[in-house]
Amino acid sequence: MPGRAPGRRRLSRSAEFERVYRQGRSKGNRFLVLYAFPHGEGDSGRAPDDGPRLGLSVSKRVGGAVDRNRVKRVLREAFWEEAERLPSSSDYVVVARPDAKGLAEREGMNGIRTALAELVDGLGGSPAPPSEAGS
């Protein structure tokens, strides 16, 4: 389902974003920061195999509304193309840095896809929940 995800595959509440930011793992580069956090049973009624969920954060520092929406559109499409390589039992937040606008303008989808693939590779396998990290 490249580019589009049903509402249940999106993060929409502040608390969901905060949990991923605070308890998840992250990897960043000049253009993007990717956060990942595994969701589990009892997590808002979600089963672990419900598939990945995506949240995007593109601030005004990236540009005006037209620029931000273009970056979000390209990020969504790139993420869902890379989603097959990601653990399906996790929530993800992609934060666009100001340089993401220039990358999207110069190299379009290929540039964003490459930057995102680099982050996916950098996170490596399934992110471990914080409770397992201390054991």
From TrEMBL:
<keyword id="KW-0540">Nuclease</keyword>
<dbReference type="GO" id="GO:0030677">
    <property type="term" value="C:ribonuclease P complex"/>
</dbReference>
<comment type="subunit">
    <text>Consists of a catalytic RNA component (M1 or rnpB) and a protein subunit.</text>
</comment>
<dbReference type="GO" id="GO:0042781">
    <property type="term" value="F:3'-tRNA processing endoribonuclease activity"/>
</dbReference>
<keyword id="KW-0694">RNA-binding</keyword>
<keyword id="KW-0255">Endonuclease</keyword>
<dbReference type="InterPro" id="IPR000100">
    <property type="entry name" value="RNase_P"/>
</dbReference>
<dbReference type="InterPro" id="IPR020539">
    <property type="entry name" value="RNase_P_CS"/>
</dbReference>
<comment type="similarity">
    <text>Belongs to the RnpA family.</text>
</comment>
<dbReference type="InterPro" id="IPR014721">
    <property type="entry name" value="Ribsml_uS5_D2-typ_fold_subgr"/>
</dbReference>
<protein>
    <recommendedName>
        <fullName>Ribonuclease P protein component</fullName>
        <ecNumber>3.1.26.5</ecNumber>
    </recommendedName>
</protein>
<dbReference type="GO" id="GO:0004526">
    <property type="term" value="F:ribonuclease P activity"/>
</dbReference>
<dbReference type="GO" id="GO:0001682">
    <property type="term" value="P:tRNA 5'-leader removal"/>
</dbReference>
<keyword id="KW-0819">tRNA processing</keyword>
<dbReference type="GO" id="GO:0000049">
    <property type="term" value="F:tRNA binding"/>
</dbReference>
<dbReference type="Pfam" id="PF00825">
    <property type="entry name" value="Ribonuclease_P"/>
</dbReference>
<comment type="function">
    <text>RNaseP catalyzes the removal of the 5'-leader sequence from pre-tRNA to produce the mature 5'-terminus. It can also cleave other RNA substrates such as 4.5S RNA. The protein component plays an auxiliary but essential role in vivo by binding to the 5'-leader sequence and broadening the substrate specificity of the ribozyme.</text>
</comment>
<keyword id="KW-0378">Hydrolase</keyword>
<dbReference type="InterPro" id="IPR020568">
    <property type="entry name" value="Ribosomal_Su5_D2-typ_SF"/>
</dbReference>
